[in-house]
Specification:
alpha/beta, Collagenase (Catalytic Domain), 7 helices, globular
Length: 175
């Protein structure tokens, strides 16, 4: 399995106040995602001789709103944004030039996550694990724009979350 370093920036203190051991939980989710994707050959694109890292910022609606507007043209906050470097055209060439490889950035908005957890009657921790797993899958090149891609990504999310002891977040949408 490729080892990945998680650079966690807690920009809003509500994260620490509302999710016990947020750093440990984040590492556990990251390790589970990488083990799961790695076992399916999904990390073969990563250079074996480089340290790999992902940047995660635990922030608020205001910052995510700004990023969503500026980068996606959507003038509203959202729960999670992912900016994957693997989507970048020259990722493979540039990853050979540096001693380490940054896979990308994930930012999660506390207020939106909290509202969604309340609406779905799930714990903040479980919803956070889902959003982080979702963001990490995007960072690794997965997407859900097309229906077939969405099925794969949601299947991965469901199985990863099950390994973490979390119920299927899509159970109400299944046939």
């Amino acid at each position: 399995m490729k080892i990945c370093k998680l650079n966690l920036d807690i920009a809003d203190e509500r994260w620490i106040a509302n999710i016990a051991d947020i750093e440990k939980v984040s590492e556990q989710v990251k390790d589970t995602v990488f083990a799961y994707v790695g076992a399916r050959g999904g990390l073969d694109f990563l250079p074996a001789d480089k340290e790999v890292s992902v940047n995660v910022c635990l922030s608020d609606d205001e910052q995510v709103h700004t990023l969503n507007r500026d980068f996606r043209g959507m003038d509203k906050p959202t729960n999670v944004l992912s900016f994957a470097n693997v989507d970048y055209r020259d990722f493979a060439d540039e990853s050979e030039l540096f001693g380490s490889v940054e896979l990308g950035d994930i930012i999660i908005a506390f207020e939106t996550m909290d509202k969604e957890a309340q609406i779905e009657s799930i714990s903040l921790k479980n919803h956070y694990c889902h959003l982080l797993a979702h963001g990490l899958l995007h960072i690794l090149g997965f997407d859900h724009i097309e229906e077939d891609e969405a099925k794969v990504m949601e299947g991965y999310e469901t199985e990863i979350l099950a390994q973490l002891g979390i119920e299927n977040p899509y159970k109400d949408f299944c046939d």
